[in-house]
Amino acid sequence: MTTRHAITAGFVPLLDSALLVVAREKGFAEVQSIDLTLVRERSWASIRDRLAVRQFDVAHILGPMPIACNLGLSAPAPEMVVPMALGLGGNAVTVSAALWQAMAGEGATADLDARASGAALRKVIDGRKGEPLRFGVVHPYSGHNYELRYWLAASGIDPDRDIEIVVLPPPDMGDALAEGAIDGYCAGEPWNTFGVMKRGGHLATVKAAIWRSSPEKVLGVNARWGEGHPEALAALLVALYEASLWCARPENREELAQLLAKPAYVGRDAALLLPALSGELPVGRGAVQNVRDFFVPNAKAATFPWKSHALWFYTQMVRWGQVAHTAERQKIAAETYRPDLYRAALKGLGIAMPSASSKVEGALTVETPVGSSGALTLGPDGFFDGGRFDPDAVDAYIAAQMR
Amino acid sequence: MKASGLNVLVIDENRIRAAIIEEGLRDSGYDQVTVIDVMHGLARRIADLNPDVIVIDLENPNRDMLESIFQLSRAVKRPIAMFVDKSDEASIEAAVEAGVSAYIVDGLKQERVRPILKMAISRFNAFSRLSRELEETRGELENRKAIDRAKGLLMRSRGLSEEEAYALLRRTAMNQNRKIVEIAQSLITAASLLDPGAKE
C-alpha cells in the first residue's frame, strides 16, 4: 500500500478544473499516495502537445478533443483514453448589451430559456443588414462550439451562413465583446460571469438550458501512460471521485471558490467563481437567475464517461464537416471513452454506478432512478428542442441532421 | 546566400525573444521575416501576410485560434498543417521542451523548413538559459546587498570590523545549518522590528 504514484496533470484555468485542484489541495490525491503535480496551460493546443510528448500524463481537456486526437484530426495526435468526466454543464452564451436589447425586443426573456432566446436571435438576424453577427467559441473541437451550433441550428439559424463563428482565448472574450469585435460568445466559467459583471454583457442562454446534464470537460489520459500505469490511474480516479463529492457539497462552495481564485489556479476573484457553483447567475442589468444543474460536479453520474456522450460529439464533428462519417471512425470515437476503466477503478468505493455504458440522450424529462446498485438518479437530460440521440442509431441521427 | 524564398512569420509576445529569433533567421539567409508581438487583430494580419511558415511560442493563448484558422482555410485551398508531424517525434519533443511550435503550408517539403525549426528551438533554449542566468544574477545581487546591510548592522551595533562581522554571520549560519543570506535577512528583520526608525 505504500507505493507512491507521481502524476503530472495539465489544466486550463477554468472553473471545471475544480476536481483536479481539489484532489490536490484537499488531500484526496495524497490519501491515494499520489504526488499530483498540476501545470497550468493557456491553450488546449499546448495541453495536447504536452500530452503527446508525455510531459503530462493526464489533463483537464475538452470532451471532444481526445476523440479528435484519436481520429487524427489534430497534430500532434497523442493516442488518448477518457476514463472519467470532470462534471456536467458549466457553459453559457453571453451576448453584447446591444444584441441583447435587440433580442429582448424580439421576445427573448431573462430566464435564459433557449427556445425563446434562439427564436429572438433568429428574428434579429432576419432583420439585420450588412455584416453577419460574430460569435466566439473556445475551440473547434469543443462542447462550446457544438452546443452553440446546436442551439442556433435548432432555432433556424445556419451557424456557417447566417453568422460567423471565430475561436478566441476565453480570457479575451469579454474584452472582444466590449470592443464590438464579437457580438456574443459561448464559453465556460468564469468568463460568462466576467462578461456580464465586468464588460456589460448579458446572458442569452446556458448549456444547461440547451442540453441539460450534458458533457463538458473530461480527464484525458495519454493511452500509453495509462496502459503502463494502471494502478496510478485507478488511484487518480478514486481521488477525483472523492474530490467531486467534496465539490458537490453546498457548504464547501465558498472554500472552493477561494481555492480556485488562487493565482496558481484560475487566478480570478472568488466573486466571479461563486455564481457557477451556486447556480445563482448574474444575467445582466443587475438581475440574477437561478439555474438548476448549471454545473454538476458529482450528482447524476456526472463523472461517468458515457459512450453516448462520445458518440454525440462525434455526430457533431460529422454534422459540421470536421470529419466524414465511417463505421470505423464511429468505433474509434466510442472506444475513446472508457466506462470499463471507471467501473474497475471505483468498484471498491461501494457507490452507485450506471450499469449501462450508453444511454439515449434526451430521453429523461424528469429525475429518474436507475440501475440496480443503489441510489443513483439520472436526468432530466433533455435537449431544448425535444431532440433525442439514440447511440444505437448513429447513422439515422447523422442523416437527419444533414438535412 | 539565399536560404529560401520562404515567407516566415514569428509570433511571440516576448519582444526580446522574438528579436532573437528574427535575427537568427536573417543570419541564416531568410530575408522575408515578419515579427508580430501584439496579438490584436492577429487573424487579419496572418491573412494579409500569407506566410509559408509560422513560428509561435507554446505559451501563446492564441494557438487555438491559429489552429482553427488553418482548419477553416482548408476550405479555401490554403491548407496549413502543423510542421512537426507524427513521424518526427524527436523534433516534437525538442520543440515542446524548448517551448516553441511551428506550422507550415501543407505540401512544403519538410527539409526546406527543418532548419527554421532547429534554429527556433536552439534560440528558444538559449533565451531560457539567458533568462535563468539573469534571474540568478539578480538574486545574487540582492543576496549580496542583504549581507552588506547585515554586516553594517553588526559593525555599528557591536563595534566589529567588516571581516569580523562577516565571520560572525558565517559562523551563525553554519551552526544553524542555514544560508548566510537567511541569517542576514533575519538580522535585518529583527533590527527593523527593534528600531523601526533606523534605516540601516
Automatic annotation (TrEMBL), chain A:
**Which InterPro entries does the annotation name?**
NrtA/CpmA_ABC-bd_dom
Q: Which UniProt keywords apply?
A: Cell inner membrane, Cell membrane, Membrane, Transport
Record protein name field: ABC transporter substrate-binding protein
List locations, semicolon-separated. Endomembrane system
Q: Where's it mainly located?
A: membrane
Leader sequence segment: none
Q: Which domain of life is it from?
A: Bacteria
Does the keyword section mention Glycoprotein? no
Q: Which residues form a coiled coil?
A: none
Concerning CDD domains, the annotation shows: PBP2_NrtA_CpmA_like (cd13553)
Membrane-spanning residues where? none
Is-annotated flag, keyword RNA-binding? no
One Pfam match, given by its short name, reads: NMT1_2
UniProtKB/TrEMBL annotation, chain B:
4-aspartylphosphate: modified positions: D57
User: Which InterPro entries does this one have?
Assistant: ANTAR, CheY-like_superfamily, Sig_transdc_resp-reg_antiterm, Sig_transdc_resp-reg_receiver, WH-like_DNA-bd_sf
PANTHER family linked: PTHR43367, TWO-COMPONENT RESPONSE REGULATOR-LIKE APRR6-RELATED
The ANTAR domain covers 127-188
Organism of origin? Shinella lacus
Q: What is this protein called?
A: ANTAR domain-containing response regulator
Ordered alphabetically, the record's keywords are:
Phosphoprotein
List residues of the Response regulatory domain. 7-121
